[in-house]
Description:
The protein is mainly beta. Among the domains are: 1-27; 38-139, Macroglobulin (MG2) domain (Immunoglobulin-like), CATH 2.60.40; 653-689 and 713-787, Immunoglobulins (Immunoglobulin-like, Sandwich); 796-859. It contains nine helices and 55 strands. Strand 37 (527-531) and strand 38 (536-541) form a beta hairpin. The radius of gyration is 39 Å and the shape is globular.
Amino acid sequence: MNIEKNKSKLSTIALILVLAISITLVTLPIVAAKGTVCYLGAIPNPVGKGQQVLLHVGITDQLPSTDQSWLGLSVTVTDPEGIQSTISDIKTDSTGGTGVSFIPDKVGTYTLVAHFPEQVQRGTTYTASDSPPVELEVLAEEIPVYPGHSLPSNYWTRPIDAQLREWSAITGSWPNTPRNLYAPYNDGPETAHILWTKPMTQGGLAGGKLDGLSFEIGDAYEGKWTGSSGGLSTWSSTAIILTGKLYYQESTQEDPVIYHCVDLHTGEELWSKVFMDNRTIAFGQTYHFDGINYHGAFEYIYVTSGGGWGGGSQTWYAFDSYTGDWMFTINNVPSGTNMYGPMNEICRYVVDTRAGTVSLWNTTEVVMKGTSGSGAGSWGSNAHGRTLDGSRGIMWTESMPTGLPGSVQASFLHDRIIGASASTSQVSVWGVNVNASAGVIGAELFRSTWTPPAYWADMGLSISGFQSGWQLWSQEDRVGILWVKDVREHYAFSLNDGTHLWSAPSQGYQDAFDDTPADARAIAYGRFYSASVSGIVYCYDIQTGDLLWKYEATDPYSEYLFGNTWWLKPVFITDGKIYVAHLEHSPIDPRPRGGPFICLNATTDNPDGEVLWRIDGAFRQTRWGGRAIIGDSIIATMDTYDQRVYAIGKGASATTVTASPKVAAKGSAVVIEGTVMDVSPGTKATDVQLRFPKGVPAISDEDMSEWMLYVYKQFGMPEDATGVEVVFNWVDSEGVWHDLYRTKSDTSGTYSYVWYPDTEGTCKIIATFMGSEGYYGSSAETTVVIGAPEEHFPTAAEIGDTTISKLPAYPAASDIAQQTAQETVNKLPAYLTIDLVTLIIIAVVLVIGLIAYMTLRKQK
């Protein structure tokens, strides 16, 4: 019975298997072969010698999944001399085709043929095929390409048309404090010109009984603004700039923390809000997604929770940068330092030196993992409105050595991880590889130790903590900097092999008092900069430690009580310039007046440094709050003298011109006059308009700092200030341009010039302000009609014995009288009555007639 039952079961199983096989055969039929059509296109055709050609290669069969490809395609290239070469190992995408670049180096006709090799996909054999030959004509001269667009010559705003690609060079953002304070992609302002200002909170002089005292300024444990690397900035929020939008908080950590989103170019507030339960912004991101079907940038501001000093995982809340609306949340974000990849994807290395592991985490992986193939789908649909598991963002985990001294100090994406330790007896530096193309990921690159000078131990120096220790690490220069505060000395170490490179002499003694020395240093252009309590900016060659220059920010009026120079910190470096400014740990009240904000030439060879501009008494920074930041080539900062937000950059100007008289005789005087005014957004503010009802004049770069204090801070008007240069041209009736004159406007914005034209006809007069470092240029034009000079009437002495018959035919006396009388009437006041006008006409006619009659009698 059991045997029969088992036989029955076996038969049933067999039947099921047969049916399953049958169904499989029905649903997945095996096709022996399928023919293919290989294609090849060449763009552009014709092309110039040495110019790039895009070859479109593939077959007309698509693949069902985005992670599938046709493999092994090739292109045979026959040049004009009959020499053949091959472009091999071409891999298509799932559309069946791909693009391959080719640069012809000979003039003439090339012949190209694409080849598809036979291969199998999903049980189907796709037969080999060749494309029809393509003849590529190569010319001796390059063919035209899109000419591109020059950088702006007028004041510009966002949004920027996507076709103006060249503008990327001046449109940097500030999503967080940049490594080593280097902020590229900006045209650093070369004057203190103010674009606009906005009150942030009650500020400035309290006045009255509180003689000389001012309102609280958001410093000393109550930091406001909080941008750059100010103080212990991890305890507070961050001011950031994303694509021309400035985000800052108006309050300290008390409720509520209100954030404002402001157009950086116009000062217009776009929105304000409190994030969640009084949270603060941590950083921003402008991420470019490059998928199969969708390509474009997405921009977010992030609020975070968790992590902090104790480490551990974080939760990130992403908000739309344009509206402030919540977009998505990422849980379980591992601890680490944010690094921005080529598309601004945020990455972190997760290093466990005890366990000996290193992992790479990526925000793109968090969002896109789980989709049907690499790069499939859309970023927005995968991320927006969702809560995502950050643990999915681990791209790989590899082993690394254990027992490495100290801790991780710096991570360079797809390059290396640097660790170090320092004591009075030994300095150690090590590196671990995270570049797959340079070797095994996780492999030890180097481990080096250096014995410091004996006086470190003899003096019992402090080598770690807030005031000493490792400061900056430069990936570009392969140098790390160690600071020993008691002796005020810097020590540099190689990030190639960990060896000691150089030691710099002591800096000013007051630099030992800086409790946050890391934000007193910056690196760019192969140079290392230090500026701290002593008020001296030091510039060193980062490879040799040679002192290239130093600049002392002297206080001419001895306002600052702790030295003859102002306590300084670098705020950022860009465009070959380093910007430094005054701040103080615990400023007393009344505030010391004249705290400077200074722009220096970062690459000068002048041993005393080179000041590009300096403004004293504006843009005073905070130690506990934020510092100045830059984006879209505009500096944004809070000033603790008046608690306002300032935008500093090149402003807009407006030129006017008039000519009088509009109709003039050749050789007679024509007065050309007009104005050149500053029309930046700040000049439209009510307080400025009340003080400058006729507008704010444009002023010279040399006088800009004092002028800005006068316009926006109500300081006294600077003496001997000058305006800007105005260039005059005139265009004759044939359309030919002529140089005319150059002059300068004055402190009212006006200019004038008297012209004596030596030509006839209709002339166009053009007045041009060519622009300066403080302003974009502007121009205006007017028209003047120049006639023949008035015909000369000879006197009796000139005529002599000449008879009347030989005289020129003068107009009749009556004609003269009538014309003169009418001109006289035209000049009369409008309120005269018609009867009185008539009497005047009669009188004028009689007088002129009598004079003419007497003249003729004398001639006879």
